[in-house]
Amino acid sequence: MKWINRLKINQKILGSIIASLLFLSLLLGIIIWNSLTDTMAKDLKKHGESVAENIAAMSSDYILIEDYYAIHLLITRARQANEDIRYILVFNSKQVLVGHTFPDYIPKGILNAHTPQGIEKDLAILSSDEGRIHDVLVPIEDGEVGFVRVGMSEKLPREYTLSKIGDLILGTLLVCLIAVGIAYITTRIITKPIETLVDTATGISAGNLSLRAPVVDDEDIGKLVRVFNEMADNLISSRSKVEKLLEELQEKERLRDTLISKLLSAQEDERKRISRELHDETSQALASLMVTMRVLADEAEDKEQKALLYTSRDIAAGILREIRDLAVELRPPILDDMGLLPAIRKYIENFKEKYSIEVTLEAPEYPIPLDDHSSLAFYRITQECLTNIAKHTVATTVMIKIWMEDSSINISILDNGQGIQKADFEMAREQNRIGIYGMQERAELLGGQFLIREASTGGTEVIVAIPIHQKEG
C-alpha cells in the first residue's frame, strides 16, 4: 500500500471516484442481472403455462379418439409460432407419449425427466446441452385424459438479457468517462492551490525564504494560503532572531574562550612568578638561615643548644626541599629547557617516589614537535590525571601512552582503580572540583578532544587528542 502514499492528492481523489463508480456499476449490474433473470424465469413459466393450457384444451378430444396426426399438427404449429419453445410433449392418461415436436429422435431421459405429481400444474428446471429448460407440465382434464409438457428454452431470453446488460455496461462506461472527466477537472481546481502550496513549502524548506504561495479566491483554500504566507513571514522573522541569537552566542563563546585562555595564561604566569620567587628568594633565605644555624651550632658551647640548632637546621633543610619541589610542580624548568617528554618522565619519577604507585610510560624516543601552549597543556593534563588518581582512586598501576596520529598528538592515561561513574561527575560538580573540566577546557581551547570513560578492563581511562601546532622559532 506504500504506492498509494506516493500518489498526488488529485490522483488519490480521482482514483477514489473511479473505484466508487466501478463498484457502483458492478453492484447495479448484479442487481439488474438478478432482476432480469427472475423476470425471465417468471415470463417463461407464464408463457409455457399459457401454451400448455391451450394445447391441453385443444388436444383432449384428439387423444380420446387417438387422432395422433391432428395432435402432431397442433403441437407443431404451436412450436413454430413460439421461438422460445424448445419442445412440446403430449401424454395420454397412461403416460404414454402420443405426440412430440422433436424432428428426428427424442433425447435420452427427456420422457422421465418430469412426471405429474397430481392434478396441479408443475414446473421443473432441466439441464441440457443448450442450457436450462423450463419444463411446464399441465394436466389434461385433471389428468384423466393425460398431460402436456412444454419445454421453454432460456437461450433467446438470455441472449436478450445479455444484450440489455451490454447496453447497460456501455452506458455505465460512458457515464463513468463523463464522471471521470468532471472529477478530473474538479480535483485539478481543488488540488492545484494545494500543490502550489506544497511546491512553495518545498522551496522554503530548501532555503528560499522569499517564496510565497499565490492567493486564490476560494474561501477555504484562500484562508489556508494566507495563513501559510503569514507563517512564512514569521519564519523569516524567527530565523533572523535565531541567527542574531546564534551570532551573539558565538560571540559570547569566543569571548569565553578568550577569557579562559587569558585566565590560563595568567595562571601559568602567576605560577611561574611564584615558582621563581620560591626558588630565588625563599630558597635563598632558607639556605642563609641554614648556614647561620650551622655557624651558631659550631660556636655554641652548650650541647643542648648545639643539638637544637642542628635539629632546626635539618627542619629548615626539609622545608627547603619541599619548597623546591613545590616550585618545580608550579613551573618545571625542565619543560622549558628540554621539552614535554623529559618533563613528564621527571614528574612520573617524583610521583612514583611520593605515592608508591607504579607508572609505565610508552612514548616516542624522538622529540614531539609541539608549541609551548600545547606542551604545557599536555603536561598539566598529565599532572592533573595523576593527582586525581592518587587522591580519588585505589589504583596501584597507571599506564600512560603517548603517540602521534593523523597530525595530532594523543595521550591515554589508564589506571586500575575502581572506575568512574556518572554520579562521580555530579559529585565533583557539587563539590566544585573542576579538575576534569579544566583538562577538557585546555584540550578544547587548542582545538583538541577530551574523553574520560570507564575502561573495559576496569579503572578509568582519559584520552586527549590535540592537533600538532609547530613550535615557533
Would you write up a description of this structure?
The protein is α+β, with helices and mostly antiparallel strands and 473 residues long. It contains 11 helices and 10 strands. Helix content is 63%, strand content 15%. A 5-stranded antiparallel sheet has the order 2-1-5-4-3. It has a 5-stranded mixed sheet with strand order 6-7-8-10-9. The two termini are 70 Å apart.
Offer a few descriptive terms.
5-stranded antiparallel β-sheet; 5-stranded mixed β-sheet; alpha+beta; 473 residues; 63% helix
Précis, in short:
With 473 residues, this protein is of the alpha+beta class. The chain has helices at 2-5, 9-64, 68-81, 155-205, 219-299, 303-330, 333-337, 340-355, 372-392, 422-430, 435-445, and strands at residues 85-92, 97-100, 122-128, 131-140, 146-153, 358-362, 397-405, 408-415, 449-454, 460-467.
Topology:
Layout: H1 2-5, H2 9-64, H3 68-81, E1 85-92, E2 97-100, E3 122-128, E4 131-140, E5 146-153, H4 155-205, H5 219-299, H6 303-330, H7 333-337, H8 340-355, E6 358-362, H9 372-392, E7 397-405, E8 408-415, H10 422-430, H11 435-445, E9 449-454, E10 460-467
